[in-house]
Write a structure and sequence with these properties.
There is one protein chain. The chain is α/β, with parallel strands linked by helices. 43% of the residues lie in helices and 18% in strands. It contains 11 helices and 8 strands. Helix 2 packs across helix 3 and helix 4 runs antiparallel to helix 8. The model has no long low-confidence stretch (mean pLDDT 98).
Amino acid sequence: MTQKIRVGDIDVTYKLEGPAGRPIVLMSNSLMSDHSMWDPTVPALLKHYQVLRYDTRGHGQTSVTPGPYSIAQLADDAVGLMDALGVAAAHIMGLSMGGMIAQQIGARYPDRALSLLLCDTASEMPPRSMWEERLAIARKDGIPGLIDSTIKRWFTAPFIERAPQAIGKVRAMILSTPLEGYINCACAVRDMAQTTMLLKIKAPTLIMTGRQDPACTVDQSMVLHRMINTSKMVVIEDAAHLSNIEQPNIFNREICDFLDVVSG
C-alpha cells in the first residue's frame, strides 16, 4: 500500500515493504514512470531486504511543483525522504533518471549510500537539440505525442511483439505522467553534467545496462565505469532501456548477487 509523507515543499508518495530491521534498498524511477516500474524487481529483493520505492517529484502521485528542476534537487528529495522515514543509509538503486539521482547521492551524501546500483543511466545526456524536440512535442501534443517513440526506445522490437501485456502496463504508466512534471524533469536531465562528480563516489557500485539501450548506451555506462573506481559493470543481452522489465530474471540475479556480496 502506498503512503504519503511531507518532504520539504512536496508530498512524496512511497511504498515501504519487507520486514523491519533488514538493510534497505531505495529505488528511484525513470523519467515518465512511477514506482510501479519496479514491480518485476521487488519480489527478488524482499527475500533479504526492505524495499523503499517512491515517485520522483512531478511523477506518479508525488507533488508537481513549478520548474525547471535539477538532478541535485531530485537527489535532495530522495535524501529528504530517507530523513523523514528515519533511514540512516540505504543501497541506492536507480534506472535512467533514477540512476542520475543515485549518482548525486553517492557523490554528495556518501554516508547515506551503502552501495549504488546504476541501471541504464548516464552522467550526461546530449544533444540538447534532442531534448528541445521532445519538449516541443510535449508542449504541443502532451504526453500522448511522445508515447510511441518512448516505447520503441525503452524496449527491443521482439519484446514489444511478444509481451503486449507488459507493454500495455508501461504505456498506461507513461500516460499517467503529469505533463508539467515530465517537462520539468526532462529539463533536469537535459541540463545535467555530472561526469567529474563521479570521482567523488566511493561506495561499491554496480553499473548495468541493456546491450540494445539507445537512450543510455553501453558507451555511456563505460564512462561511469571508468570514473567510479569501486564499480563493476554488467551488460544485459537482448534488452533496451528498461532492462529490469525486458530481462527480469537476469536483472534480478545480477542485483541480488551484487547486494549479497556488498552486504557480506
